[in-house]
Design goal:
Layout (H helix, E strand, L loop, with lengths): L7 H4 L16 E6 L4 H12 L3 E7 L19 E6 L10 H22 L3 E5 L3 H13 L3 E6 L3 H9 L6 H19 L2 E4 L5 H6 L7 E3 L17 H5 L6 E6 L9 H9 L6 E6 L3 H13 L4 E4 L7 H7 L2 E5 L12 H8 L3 E4 L5 H9 L2 E4 L4 H13 L1 H18 L2 H16 L16
Parallel strand pairs: 1-2, 1-4, 2-3, 4-5, 5-6, 6-7, 8-9, 8-11, 9-10, 11-12, 12-13
């Protein structure tokens, strides 16, 4: 059993289709979220609190911040967590090694599904080889399968790796795009986090009747607003400095040059600090450039414990998020949602058409600048730094948006409705073998 797991048999003793609180029919649900994000775990807790038997499965071998993916004393008895741990951490930049690691992960995920025997599987942010294994396992145990679509991974690979490896990156991307199309068409339902994916899904032949748009959210209970002067800011010497704070991964779809240039703009201001809470290859690049340019005002800090994240975001006077132009069509930076819970103004460098940009503009919670518009990005940063009134306005609007939109009861109602809809229909026949050697 992997670390973080609980004895499944001790938790789940009821039969399928059992009656829950108030006589409602409950389901046996496996929620799989490969990265271990906070809001998927929050959904699992809420579903379990409504009487469903829920096993939440995630990876313990990824270098990203994770949510509350361990049982607590207050959790319902019908909730379990299982972390899948490989023999080594997955390095996203080591492409060949990563391919074999994700294949190994796929086998362990399939084993978890066959052991738990769910009635329905919801699988999110999952590498496509593992997603194919999850769908096969769901079919083997007679479970419905919901593809929770966070990113269009095949398109992402084509665009981000297309020019690499003498054109091989483009071929790999097309291969995975084909796999993703087949997995989406074979799923009983698809949850799209943005309406922006609808055109692509239609072009790929995905039945529109199987698609539900349910935007992501963030947990205000787990990410409460915190004052700037807090234990974390004091421990890091940041309580009395103006802080631009970036939290989360810096991957292929993020441009760290923006953060570097932001720090350079305030190089001579000892009262201003750019704080980057991250880890990985691009973070190491930032560290190298910091040393070369002697940027004392650039603080690079590794990922923090989830319990400390509210204090980390509370330390910020302005929260920063970036997304490259090429990534807009297949990705939405979910950290922007967490930022709203913090009640801080947001400085966002993303394409205008991206959902995150539309949210910030709709909520009037910050400034949005197009990628590569470096001068505009720095101008917006200085505007926010110079005006406490503007920051207070955006902060108030951010909190208002979070309180109005992140209603977990209403969100869970939508998931339960989808689950009932899937379980009311017969599961389709066996899925064609999606393993790479058979495609």
């Amino acid at each position: 059993m992997q670390a973080g797991s609980v004895p499944i048999g001790a938790l789940f003793l009821r039969t399928k289709g059992a009656l829950g609180p108030g006589g409602t029919v409950t389901s046996r649900i496996l929620v799989h979220d490969y990265p271990g994000h906070p809001f998927q775990a929050q959904l699992s807790r809420k579903l379990a609190s409504r009487g469903h038997e829920v096993l939440h499965v995630y990876s313990q071998s990824v270098l990203i911040p994770q949510g509350a993916v361990r049982r607590s004393e207050s959790d319902p008895a019908t909730l379990g967590f299982s972390g899948i741990r490989l023999s080594s951490v997955i390095d996203k930049q080591a492409y060949v090694q990563r391919y074999f690691q994700e294949r190994a992960y796929a086998k362990l995920l399939e084993k978890e599904i066959r052991r738990f025997q769910p009635e329905i599987v919801l699988s999110s942010s999952t590498p496509l080889d593992a997603q194919a294994a999850a769908l096969r396992a769901a079919r083997l145990v007679g479970a419905g399968f919901v593809f929770w679509l966070q990113d269009l991974q095949g398109i992402a690979i084509e665009r981000l790796l297309g020019a690499r490896f003498n054109g091989m990156g483009r071929m790999v991307g097309r291969y995975y795009t084909g796999m993703e199309k087949r997995l989406l068409r074979a799923s009983d339902a698809v949850i799209a986090i943005t309406e922006d994916f609808s055109r692509t899904l239609k072009d790929w032949g995905v039945d529109a009747g199987t698609v539900r748009v349910i935007p992501n959210w963030a947990s205000m209970d787990e990410l409460p607003q915190r004052p700037k002067d807090n234990p974390w800011s004091r421990a890091n010497g940041l309580a009395d400095r103006f802080c631009f704070v970036y939290t989360g991964t810096i991957g292929l779809k993020h441009n760290p040059e923006l953060l570097l240039r932001l720090a350079l703009a305030y190089k001579d201001r000892t009262d201003v600090c750019v704080v980057v809470v991250s880890k990985g290859a691009k973070t190491e690049w930032l560290k190298k450039r910091k040393a070369e340019l002697k940027l004392e005002g650039l603080r690079i800090i590794p990922f923090q414990e989830y319990a400390d994240v509210p204090d980390v975001m509370g330390t910020a006077d302005v929260l920063v998020a970036v997304l490259d132009a090429d990534a807009s069509g297949f990705s939405v930076p979910s950290k922007v949602l967490s930022y709203h819970c913090a009640g801080r103004p947001i400085l966002l460098s993303v394409p205008d058409e991206n959902l995150a940009a539309r949210i910030v503009r709709q909520a009037q919670s910050g400034r949005v600048v197009m990628p590569l518009h470096m001068a505009g990005f720095l101008e917006a940063a200085e505007e926010l730094r110079a005006s406490s009134a503007l920051r207070a306005k955006f902060a108030e609007n951010a909190l208002r948006y979070a309180r109005q939109v992140f209603d977990l009861d209403r969100i869970t109602d939508r998931f339960e409705s989808l689950i009932r809809s899937v379980l009311a229909h017969d599961v389709p026949g066996e899925l064609e073998d999606e393993r790479p050697e058979a495609v």
